[in-house]
Amino acid sequence: MNISGRTKLFPIIGDPVAGVVSPPAVNAWFQSNAIDACMMPLNIPASNITGFWDMLRASNTFLGCSITYPHKQSAYAQVDTMTERATRLGALNTVRRADDGSLCGDATDGTALLQAIGQAGARVNGACVHITGAGGGAGRAIIDALCDAGAANIILEDTDAARLAQTLALVEQFWPNTSIGDKGPADIVIDATPNGKNANAAPLLAPEVVSGCKAICDIAGQHGQSQLLNTAKQMKKIAIDASDMGYCQVQAQMAFLFQNQTAF
């Protein structure tokens, strides 16, 4: 990759950013589409984030930015416009900068996982989905996307009762046709927590939940490492890992970033 005075920047901001995995995949996408742009990590504490938004608006070197913890919620208040799903969720993971410096936000976590599920051969429409980590930012985005895609029933788990209540309120307000359950067999199970990053961590989902499903998703774990995904392989289930979701995340973010552009 050659960096010149014409190269556009698309940073991923967070604190910490040492563990982010997006830059290689996004930079490969830029290269394969002959776009002179670069993603790099920017570690910015929450106490200093205001200056970044000022710089993003001021400099046409930026295409926008990708956003990770802890800035997804605070970014919501910094943009001029946003997608409908971002409005529902109250959080952003992608911002697009216009030529006039205005900012538009989106939340693509949910649609990215749904694309990965579909590519793996599982069907969301009409399905029952059991998700743990339902109160987190990623979990909430995934649930919103599941409802939008026609999931018939969702079973929600989270260790934080207040966050879970917020997710329940989201579903009840915007997706009244989706049933909310508290137990029973599910077609798809999803771990939307960071648990899968630890190869030694026991799965959070109960064995009976896992054994009865058709597809298993671990948004933080990797094939061959996550115990949940290892169980999925042993049981011959459809398995979706963080890399599968990450690939689709790149596609979703780039589609938003270069909206209405058919050639690069």
How many H/I helices? 10
- CATH structural architecture of the largest domain: 3-Layer(aba) Sandwich
Q: In terms of per-residue confidence, which ranges show pLDDT below 50 for 5 or more consecutive residues?
A: none
Q: Structural class of the helices, strands and pairings? A: alpha/beta
Mean pLDDT rating:
94
Reading the helices and strands in chain order gives EEHEEHEHEHEEHEHEHEEHEHEH
Strand content: 15-25%
Helix content: 25-40%
CATH class of the largest domain: Alpha Beta
The tally of structural domains comes to 2
**Strands ordered across the widest β-sheet:** 4-2-5-7-8-6
- Strands, total number: 14
CATH superfamily of the largest domain: NAD(P)-binding Rossmann-like Domain
Gap between N and C termini, in Å?
17 Å
